[in-house]
From TrEMBL, chain B:
GO biological process: response to zinc ion; zinc ion transport
Pfam families the record matches: ABC_tran
Lineage, opening ranks: Bacteria, Pseudomonadati, Pseudomonadota, Alphaproteobacteria, Rhodospirillales
Basic residues bias locations: 262-277
Keyword terms, alphabetized: ATP-binding, Cell membrane, Ion transport, Membrane, Nucleotide-binding, Translocase, Transport, Zinc, Zinc transport
Protein name: Zinc ABC transporter ATP-binding protein ZnuC
Region (Disordered): 253-292
Domain spans labelled ABC transporter: 16-231
Source species of the chain: Aerophototrophica crusticola
Name of the encoding gene: znuC
């Protein structure tokens, strides 16, 4: 559960500095998430699905409301709603009635609003909405850590299982189908993996910033990667560094933690362009 | 010299036979009542204007597009090598040619090198896919199709984004490959001139099959002329002087013997079949527009 906080202030690390275990949990949770988000984010970047990921993330708040409402736990609620939205989006995209970005724009903001309205209507509940929107990494509990690391291992294993097929269809979907790749199933599996990642990431960076943890480290890794696997590993590494740096900044400069992590990742991306290199692939 | 054809295609059972194919997109009929047959060692070319449904037909035959009517018979265990019209690999994906060729399916390093050498692109093995010229990319796509040891090669506009020299060399290469491997070839082209000398059967498509037959027959067919206008007349004239070269067995005549000066055409097309034998890859200048 998020700690009792006013909705107008965002969590910073300094307030929790005296409680070492909070910081350690924050670090362990954040790094676990970064290791997961790196490889997954690479595929998101390759398949140009950043806005798609954003849309799923926005629908997560609806999952939170559903989790409370049905008493099934927030993580389950978020995964269920994200997966449902992912399937719905795939179906709507196949209809080709609307341009993809228009469709995503509609779904993204209407699900976010629906989530906010649903949470507001649940009068018996006092929820720190800001913690869901921007994350509350300092409130990470041991149970959250179990979710992040346990779930993370499962998601990464799933990604490894579909990795080659996912790459083949990322390069060319028709070619992959002719060569026997079950494109629809692989696409669906990948969406479920993203949905699960969003559920796990919500606590750390929040719904509005989840996509950045997927996209920014992957974009940073691109310049240094000779092949897809190295890029995935580098993205995981850059993400972990951003978590470390962001927590440190939050502690030193009293910055809100989630945004500090994202800014660290963005800063690393910008700085990476100063590193001269000979591009191989 | 080109290798001889393994057998007369007409005597062999078809690799692929389609009857009465229909495809509809959102209530609009894209293909209607299309039939076609491809036999081993045979090159079948689909031509037609833009929007005629050529790519849709190819995708329907490959099972990538649902049919609204008709049926497709494939020879059991048919192995298809497919070469898409273009490849749009995001620049953020670090992908060398070596990796691209082994993305799905198995191939040893020696097989990779052999396939690339066969298409005249041995030098790009370690290059990034995104850095290839249009011609190099088409050759790499062809190599990937060949690595599947196909019975049937399906090539959608194989010479798009390739300059004129490259186009001729590519068609020559496709011809050589079908002779060497004995595979059937179904290829899409927007221009009959380019594929004339290397095609056994031409199918002229405009949502339905307008006409089909040997290239020179199609070139004179009223429906073809109606569809392609002036270019078609030039083609008929052009082919008139060549009829004898095809008369004996209906097979494609080796390039070297077919050579005839052809400055009597004034329609500004380059004739793919009449470029003199460059070795595969010998003339692929790396300045195609495909280097994304």
């Amino acid at each position: 559960m998020p700690m009792a906080r006013g909705v107008t202030t965002m969590p910073t690390a300094r307030g929790a500095a005296e409680m070492d275990e909070f910081l350690v949990r924050a670090l362990v949770g954040g790094i676990g998430l970064a290791l997961l988000a790196g490889p997954l984010g690479c595929v998101v970047v390759w398949r140009r699905m950043a806005y798609f990921g954003d849309t799923l993330a926005h629908s997560a708040l609806l999952g939170v409301a559903l989790g409370f409402l049905l008493g099934i736990g927030l993580n389950i609620g978020v995964v269920a709603v994200c997966a449902g939205i992912a399937v719905l989006l795939t179906f709507l995209q196949e209809q080709r009635k609307l341009a993809s970005d228009t469709l995503l724009g509609i779904v993204s903001h209407s699900t976010l609003s629906l989530g906010l309205v649903a949470l507001a209507l649940m009068e018996s509940l006092r929820v720190d909405i800001l913690a869901y929107l921007f994350g509350d990494i300092l409130a990470v509990t041991p149970a959250d850590l179990a979710w992040i690391w346990g779930g993370g291992v499962i998601v990464l294993a799933g990604l490894a299982l579909v990795w080659r097929r996912l790459l083949a269809m990322t390069v060319d979907e028709d070619l992959a189908r002719v060569e026997g790749v079950p494109v629809r199933w692989i696409r669906l599996s990948f969406m479920l993996l993203i949905a699960a990642t969003i559920a796990l990431a919500m606590k750390i960076v929040g719904i509005l910033l989840v996509t950045s943890l997927l996209v920014v480290p992957a974009a940073t890794a691109r310049r240094f990667a000779p092949n897809p696997e190295v890029m995935a590993a580098l993205a995981a590494g850059f993400g972990a560094m951003a978590v470390l740096l962001g927590l440190g900044l939050s502690l030193q400069a009293d910055l809100p933690t989630g945004p500090a992590i994202v800014l660290s990742a963005a800063g690393m991306f910008a700085l990476s362009h100063l590193v001269p290199l000979r591009r191989t692939a | 010299m080109p290798l001889p054809l393994p057998a007369r295609p007409a005597d062999l059972p078809p690799l692929l036979r389609a009857e009465g194919l229909g495809v509809r997109y959102g209530g609009r009929t894209v293909l209607d009542g299309v039939g076609l047959t491809v036999r081993p060692g045979e090159i079948v070319t689909l031509i037609g204007p833009n929007g005629a449904g050529k790519s849709t037909l190819v995708k329907a035959l490959l099972g990538l597009v649902p049919l609204s009517a008709g049926r497709i018979e494939r020879r059991p265990d048919l192995r298809v090598g497919y070469m898409p019209q273009r490849l749009a690999v995001d620049p953020t994906l670090p992908l060398t040619v070596r990796r691209f060729l082994t993305l799905w399916g198995k191939a040893t390093e020696a097989e990779l090198r052999a396939a690339l050498a066969e298409v005249g692109a041995a030098h790009v093995l370690g290059s990034a896919v995104q850095s290839l010229s249009g011609g190099e990319l088409q050759r790499v796509l062809l190599a990937r199709a060949l690595l599947r040891k196909p019975d049937l090669l399906v090539l959608d506009e194989p010479v798009q984004a390739v300059d004129v020299h490259g186009q001729a060399a590519l068609f020559e290469l496709i011809d050589t490959i079908r002779r060497r491997h004995g595979c059937g070839v179904l290829l899409v082209s927007h221009d009959l001139h380019l594929v004339m000398a290397r095609t056994d059967t031409v199918i002229c498509l405009n949502r339905h099959v307008c006409c089909q037959g040997k290239p020179e027959e199609v070139g004179r067919h009223p429906d073809y002329v109606a569809l392609f206008g002036r270019h078609a007349e030039a083609l008929a004239l052009y082919h008139h002087s060549h009829d004898h070269a095809h008369a004996d067995d209906g097979c494609v005549v080796p390039v070297g013997q077919e050579h005839t000066p052809h400055d009597h055409h004034h329609h500004g097309h380059d004739h793919g079949g009449h470029q003199h034998a460059h070795g595969p890859g010998g003339h692929d200048h790396a300045h195609g527009p495909g280097g994304r």
